[in-house]
Specification:
Radius of gyration: 22 Å
Shape: globular
Distance between the termini: 21 Å
Strand order of the largest sheet: 11-10-13-18-15-16
CATH topology of the largest domain: Immunoglobulin-like
CATH architecture of the largest domain: Sandwich
Number of helices: 4
Keywords: Copper, Disulfide bond, Glycoprotein, Metal-binding, Oxidoreductase, Signal
Pfam families: Cu-oxidase, Cu-oxidase_2, Cu-oxidase_3
Protein name: Laccase
Number of domains: 3
InterPro entries: Cu-oxidase-like_N, Cu-oxidase_2nd, Cu-oxidase_C, Cu-oxidase_fam, Cu_oxidase_CS, Cu_oxidase_Cu_BS, Cupredoxin
Family: Belongs to the multicopper oxidase family.
């Protein structure tokens, strides 16, 4: 069992983290901006610091993670584990029976105050795939506190499809702003991002020729790339010049291989794809076209891009980027199907579940607030989990009023999202504690109960409907929210309080030490 005790120094913002450490126990607070942790088998460290960085050539204040104070970075250090281990979480890992460790401010815990710590103790024996970690308080992760997680499966059913799967094949995408996230929140309307960062490097229009990320491949080998969109606001169109991408995993769920040459990826979503390095030895443009700003539809001076470099190619940037041709192979979400145990729970028709919930998204332009069924989510002063452990079991007894919905145990739940008049979408909705079957995707009026895509983050679009299903087999309060971080802070969320009567203190909360 992994023990993770997160400790914050005096000058950091409050942070309910999704920070993970590879099988570590963090002990004793160290002065100023540090996390100190220690493995049971060897010594290791992870530090959180405030630091000015310039990943695109423009210097700004950030909050970063690293294994020493000198090597803090954006994105944060890679966290790895194995499916057979007790492992780490946060985004996408279910925290089954350990809801307290989910890391969400005022849902599963209070924020961690400066000079205090929080001990996380949990395992994930039955998940593998591509995940990530981030702060989950207000809009803080927009300032840089986010990083990748990979849980490797020793018996990966796709392992014969690729030769290389390691730290060098992780690709993170993030929009990047020259304003801090609190400045963006104060403005209420997010401006266009200044840059797109790929593995923490990028350029902005009119900026200097800062180094671009270079990913090296060897001709003739097959690579499993793990693509993670860690964006604050934007979504991206991802492609690699002259190469096909065979998708084999989505949000930690293995899929039947599906070959494309363009992936539209939204904040919090993840895809694994296999790339066959079978092209002439050269440099190829890796493209991540943002839907907002950053010279959104070009690569002038290397914006929106990185470099795929074959071993033996000259160390230079691609001279041009190939535009997508008429034979572009895009995909719709409904084109993806789970490799294992396909099929949605419940009966194969709309409404064929034990409980059906309908959520209509709304937007108040005068107040600049989002809502679900007319309710703007506002964080309670007492975490929902603590309310439940104190004896509140019914939605009407739980705060925030109208923002918590109780679910019975071991039942099939169907949720219909109606995009309504909510602007600035599509909205990537993420459910904590579960993966779900998307039986109706946002771009279709058809239902698929036989083999729908299974994932933890799906899209809800204006004036369209999305329908998901899952089984309530994981007691605790779970956040369901838009993963465009400003939209979440402006109210686009609810809490699903699952099996409240079986959420017991003795089972859910271990004994803690607070330093």
């Amino acid at each position: 069992m992994f023990l993770i005790n997160v400790v914050f120094g005096s000058c950091l913002l409050l942070l309910p983290t999704r920070l993970l450490v590879n099988g570590v126990e963090i002990v004793k607070s160290h002065p100023r901006d540090k996390i100190w942790h220690e493995k049971t088998d060897h010594h290791d460290q992870l530090f959180i610091v405030n630091k000015d960085i310039a990943p695109d050539g423009f210097q700004r204040s950030t909050v970063l993670a690293g294994r020493t104070p000198q090597d803090v970075s954006f994105p944060g250090p890679l966290i790895t584990g194995r499916k057979v281990d007790s492992a780490h979480h946060w985004h996408g890992l279910f925290q089954k029976t350990t809801n307290y460790a989910d890391g969400v401010a005022f849902v599963s815990q209070c924020p961690i105050a400066a000079n205090h710590s929080f001990l996380y103790d949990f395992g994930v024996p039955d998940q593998a795939g591509t995940f990530w970690y981030h702060s989950h308080l207000s809009v803080q992760y927009g300032d840089g506190l986010r990083g990748p997680i990979v849980i490797y499966d020793p018996e990966d059913p796709h392992q014969d499809l690729y030769d290389v799967d390691d730290e060098s094949t992780i690709i993170t995408i993030a929009d990047w702003f020259h304003l801090t996230s609190l400045q963006l929140l104060a403005a209420l309307v997010v401006p266009n991002a200044d840059a797109t960062l790929i593995n923490g490097k990028g350029r902005y229009v009119g900026g200097p020729d800062t180094p671009l990320t270079v990913i090296n491949v060897e001709h003739g080998k097959r690579y499993r790339f793990r693509l993670i969109d860690m964006s604050f606001d934007a979504f991206h169109g991802f492609s690699i010049d002259n190469h096909n991408l065979a998708i084999i995993e989505v949000d930690g769920i293995n899929t039947l291989p599906h070959t494309v040459n363009f992936i539209e990826i939204y904040p919090a979503q993840r895809y694994s794809f296999v790339l066959n390095a079978n092209q002439p030895i050269s440099n190829y443009r890796i493209q991540a076209l943002s839907n907002t700003g950053v010279g959104a539809h070009n690569f002038t001076n290397g914006v929106n891009s990185a470099i795929l470099r074959y071993v033996g190619a000259p160390e230079e940037e691609p001279q041009t980027s190939q535009p997508l041709s008429s034979d572009v192979m895009m995909f719709r979400e409904g084109d993806l199907h789970p490799l294992e145990n396909p099929g949605a729970p419940g009966n194969p028709y709309p409404g064929g579940a034990d409980l059906v919930l309908n959520f209509t998204l709304g937007f108040d332009a005068d107040m600049v607030l989002f809502s679900m069924n007319g309710v703007v989510f506002e964080s309670p002063t007492v975490p929902v989990l603590l309310q439940i452990l104190s004896g509140a079991h019914h939605a009407q007894d739980l705060l925030p009023k109208g923002g918590v919905h109780t679910l019975p145990p071991n039942k099939v739940i169907e949720i219909n999202f109606f995009g309504g008049d909510a602007p600035a979408g599509p909205h990537p909705f993420h459910l904590h504690g579960h993966a779900f079957d998307v039986v109706r995707t946002s771009d279709s009026s058809e239902y698929n109960f036989k083999n729908p895509v299974r994932r933890d983050t799906t899209l809800v679009a204006m004036n369209n409907q999305t329908t998901i299903r899952f089984v309530t087999d994981n007691a605790g309060p779970w956040f369901l929210h838009c993963h465009i971080d400003l939209h979440l802070s402006l109210g686009l969320a609810v809490v699903l309080a699952e099996d409240t009567r079986d959420t017991k203190k003795d089972d859910m909360i271990p004994v803690m030490s607070i330093y």
